[in-house]
Design goal:
Two copies of one chain form a homodimer.
Chain A: H1 7-17, H2 26-40, E1 52-53, E2 66-69, E3 96-109, E4 113-120, E5 123-130, H3 137-144, E6 151-160, E7 173-184, H4 193-197, H5 200-217, H6 224-237, H7 245-250, H8 252-255, H9 259-281, E8 285-286, E9 292-293, E10 305-308, E11 311-315, H10 320-328, E12 333-341, E13 354-363, H11 369-389, H12 391-401, E14 414-416, H13 417-426, H14 438-452, E15 456-460, E16 483-488, E17 491-498, H15 503-512, H16 521-525, E18 534-540, H17 541-548
Parallel strand pairs in A: 2-7, 5-7, 8-12, 14-15
Antiparallel strand pairs in A: 1-2, 3-4, 3-6, 4-5, 6-7, 9-11, 10-11, 12-13, 13-18, 15-16, 16-17, 17-18
Helix pairs in contact in A: 1-2, 5-6, 9-11, 9-12, 9-17
Chain lengths: ~575, ~575
């Protein structure tokens, strides 16, 4: 973590202590002295509502205005007001505030000054302890010794900074500490938050630097001395070790504290909120379908099996059958947000064995495009909502991961499968069995980004062979289905279709797909007593967040991801 | 279903057809004749955008303005506007509307008049077909023969009724049919919607009537003739067979079409919406925790086990550990809405093996009552929201089930466990092992309803022995815990507490509870690197809806319920 920007406070401290003079102009020094005087005017804190604890076995210094608080068992409720770090701003200048935050970094400068960077979710602020009547030597020692990630209660005065503090998100203000108590002390960390938070860009630059040096080292004519110099440069360039994905996940609670991750899960929450907001406004109702089911859902493969009293059950691979049954039960327009389970033994950047499905199903009157239009509008409303209401979180993710802003139009471009296949053929890609491969999807995404300038688009009219038995065929061409996929940055995030709403056709199709009709009898029966034409789709929440943010691994957008090799934490 | 209220239209029809004269005053007849003239002025419908299908093997009459539509495979999208039955009102008088609805009942009166009750979710409207130039004999026959629950597209004119139609929810308007097409034909029903929708009150009255007759039959001095008469009365009184819960659930898709059930699931959706609305406004974020976990969650009992590739996993009994880990990861305030799995082999009115948990967890600064206050305010906000925004749905449920309106105050009354136990002792109930039984909870609910006039209240400071190992103890009395339950109508709907946020204390408590610490190491480790004091709770969605509506069985508020004996549909 950079420590520039702490210089003004440090200089002020040096001036006050009569140490080596700052090189800045006199008027600046004057200002600082005035500030010091203000600081001296601070009253000794003495609300003493929670007495510091002085454990016998630990060598923890404590005093009236510092120490370790007794474990909070809700002893008292004085009703004090706490200020969030994010809410600190220059208008609070001179006011006393109470903060509740983590010690991000604590650093002594000389023996009269300690800087603590306090972190609270996405925000950090610099707290300064300068020796004075009430900031004692013991207190400074105590402050400098607080372990990183400990949670503290800090009382202090808001001070406007004379130069922006580059190392904190709160650049215009800092906190002149009056009291400092530990609420919860952290053990020494297995991983440093700074390492977890380091921008991927740093590693990219590092890789480039190292590669450039290695390139130079290829030169056989180099003298031993030059070689040695280059080897030293190389090891210097290679200064940061990247924390591997698995290590991050093994220490997920620490990893999640990183601002980019705080933001990712705020954005995940936002996508859910925007999804529901849109649909509730359109008279959808939210349903909850069972996850334990008696037969292997829509496809026999890739299903988790569990014991269920004297029998067994399966975990639902999607709410497909149930949301359709809700339509048959006149719910008309339904959505569900819930876990979806897939026992696929594939370790890819975009598969999880458990993910959150955002599902919709909707009766229509004339044409399934009524539903596809809603899906399109729903997704672009989500993108718009993120952009407009969560810019700060998007910036936080960008600061670590860096990505191209997500582009879309309203409505989105829509292509038939045949049109998409033609675009691929035009660049020499062969589409086999009327199915576009994952690699080809990526290429298609690039073509469409270039031609239409968007990261979001729809492909309609897939071939029936590529779709499940309950998919309605195109009325004009029975090889095609009324089926569509939605794509973000060249990856599928939603698959959907018009469904068969005729029990007889559904049963025939199930049989022709080799499905045991008896095992899905309840589902088929649901269509026997009058059913509306309907269509729907299922969106993967983690994929939407991953692709919106251009992050390359779905494990980064699942709070506690599950894959064939990971079941903890 | 009552057929009163159809009389005005029927009379109109009779008048027009020159049949038996209505007994009403002449001016009323005149009005009807004018209406008839209006009707005759209707143009023959001829948009013909979807041609009727005339299958060879079926004897289905069809014509220009009636018949069975071809299966909708999204052939066309003419973009016609449909009107919801709920939106029909007298201001639309004379206008032509297009409806998409179910045939609730179809009934011929004489051979020139057919009444169809059209149902669309909670609403019904009467459609009238009276023989005319374009309402042919064939069309009337076709209309009268449509099976119940078939979905139809009806074009017609809105006509104000002269007397309210008691058999429909739309009492002030009816539809003079111009065209009638079947979209999806229902097979003959295994259960009648009327039977499924019959008010419980009817059965209560029936039971009383039967009991009264049986009482009379006890009289040994009765003559054989009187006895016979009473037996006949009894069998007459016993006219409605109640559809059993299991039969309902076996035919859930039909059962759900009943207006009260439509309303119940609209209200379930509403509770979720109000829950989130409140929490998002209070800066909570929504999280999604894994449901497949590596060890048996917080308690070893009652857990479902599944195969997980080469190993096995369990289904989460609650998101407890994960929501706490989110707090340790600085999420500060989190909620989750998701399935919760309990392998408890108990068949009661309030247990399911899978239900929807509404969970919250929140860091606090001083006292866990900060969280309890939020929980209280959250719940009463939900009650208020239901009352204010979903009165129509509440009425629909009431019409079938009948219940006392739910009473609450803001804030809610709050009692300690000891106070609650004392209230029970005062009525002679003995509280054993510092634990209140389910039956005693019910009694307590009645006491509090009488004394405080509310159906919602909180009990705080349960004994530690009754709570899980991760519960924080009361600082003043270690026998007590900082733990609370929320109650609705004498039944628990939420259990919560301050949690232990100190890794060492947590580990010690786990050990003293006989828990294998290694199996929950990730959870315990989460508290080692600084953790905020926090508290939370888990609310059962189905229980909230059940108890708010005073419905006696949780299977009625779960769309597709799961219990030890039910895994389908």
């Amino acid at each position: 973590m950079s420590e520039t920007g702490q210089q003004n406070a440090a200089a002020a401290a040096a001036a006050a202590a009569g140490e080596e003079k700052s090189k800045k102009a006199l008027n600046r020094e004057l200002k600082k002295q005035q500030k010091e005087e203000k600081k001296k005017a601070f009253k000794q804190p003495g609300d003493g509502q929670q007495k510091p604890q002085q454990p016998k076995e630990e060598i923890v210094t404590s005093g009236e205005n510092f120490g370790k608080l007794t474990l909070n068992q809700s002893q008292e409720r004085p009703g004090r007001t706490f200020t969030r770090v994010a809410d600190l701003n220059p208008s609070l200048e001179g006011q006393e505030v109470l903060l509740f935050a983590r010690v991000h970094v604590s650093r002594a400068q000389g023996n009269k000054l300690v800087f603590i960077s306090l972190r609270d979710a996405l925000s950090t602020v610099q707290a300064v302890l300068l020796m004075s009547d009430f900031i004692t030597k013991s207190m400074l020692k105590f402050a400098a010794g607080i372990t990183k990630e400990s949670i503290v209660e800090v009382k202090g005065k808001v001070v406007k900074t004379t130069a922006p503090i580059e190392s904190c998100t709160q650049k215009d203000v800092e906190i002149a500490v009056l009291s400092l108590f530990i609420v919860s002390e952290a053990l020494h960390l297995p991983l440093q938050i700074e390492d977890l938070a380091r921008p991927t860009e740093v590693f990219e630059r590092q890789r480039q630097d190292v590669a450039a040096i290695e390139q130079k080292l290829q030169d056989l004519s180099l003298s031993e001395e030059v070689k040695k110099g280059l080897e030293e440069d190389k090891s210097k360039a290679n200064k940061f070790a990247e924390v591997l994905q698995d290590t991050r996940l093994n220490n997920r609670v620490l990893d999640l504290r990183v601002p980019a991750n705080q933001a990712i899960f705020k954005l995940q929450s936002a996508v859910g909120m925007l999804f529901r907001e849109y649909l509730l406004n359109k008279n959808f109702i939210e349903i909850h379908s069972p996850k334990m089911i008696s037969s292997a859902s829509e496809s026999g493969a890739s299903v988790f099996k569990l014991g269920y009293f004297d029998t067994h059950a399966y975990l639902a691979q999607s709410p497909q059958f149930y949301k359709q049954m809700a339509i048959c039960a006149d719910m008309e327009r339904v959505f569900e947000i819930g876990p979806v389970f897939r026992a696929e033994n594939s370790l890819t950047h975009r598969h999880l064995t458990e993910f959150v499905g955002l599902d919709i199903e909707m009766a229509f009157r004339e044409h399934y495009h009524e539903v596809l239009d809603e899906l399109d509008n729903l997704m672009t409303s989500i993108f718009e909502g993120l952009e407009k209401r969560f810019a700060k979180e998007i910036e936080s993710v960008k600061a670590q991961y860096g990505f191209e802003p997500f582009k879309y139009t309203r409505p989105s471009p829509r292509f038939t499968f045949d049109q998409a296949a033609a675009m691929l053929k035009a660049i020499g890609e062969e589409v086999v069995d009327n199915d576009i491969s994952t690699a080809q999807e990526k290429k298609l995404g690039k073509i469409i980004k270039e031609s239409h300038g968007v990261d979001f688009y729809i492909i309609d009219k897939f071939y029936a062979t590529a779709r499940p038995f309950y998919t309605m065929r195109d009325p004009a061409n029975p090889l095609l289905a009324n089926a569509y996929d939605l794509f973000m940055r060249g990856e599928e995030i939603c698959s959907g279709a018009q469904r068969i709403h005729d029990a007889k056709m559904l049963e025939e199709n199930a049989i022709s797909h080799g499905i045991n009709v008896a095992s899905i009898q309840d589902y088929i029966d649901a269509f026997k007593y009058g059913a509306s034409p309907h269509a729907g789709g299922g969106v993967g929440l983690e994929r939407v967040v991953m692709l919106y943010l251009g992050i390359g691994n779905i494990r980064k957008t699942s709070m506690f991801p599950r894959d064939p090799k990971r079941l903890t934490p």
